[in-house]
Amino acid sequence: MKRSPSSKPSTATELAIAALGFLAADEKRLTRFLSLSGLEPQSLRAAAREPGFLPGVIEHVAADEDLLTAFAGEYGLDPQEVERARGTLAGRPGDTGAA
Question: Residue 64 has what DSSP assignment?
Answer without folding.
Answer: -
